[in-house]
Amino acid sequence: MKQFQNELTKLINRHSLENGSNTPDYIISDYLVRCLKNFNEASAHRVDWHTSTILESHQPQTTTDCNYTVGIDGPGEELKQPI
What we know:
Blueprint: H1 2-14, H2 25-57, E1 61-65, E2 68-74, E3 77-82
Helix pairs in contact: 1-2
């Protein structure tokens, strides 16, 4: 990542993008690299959340029907067991 940050610093300098904020190019590149790292971490958390939400929604459900407990394990898959 250090090589990327060095190249980003040079790119910012080459296009004088630091002039708008009067901030040294290396500070801007450091900021942008940190933003990217934070975004990657947030994306990983989103994936973890999404995965856990999917797993929770696919938990077997049970209902009581007369003298049977019906477990639904997926579409069209009912397991009936005497109570």
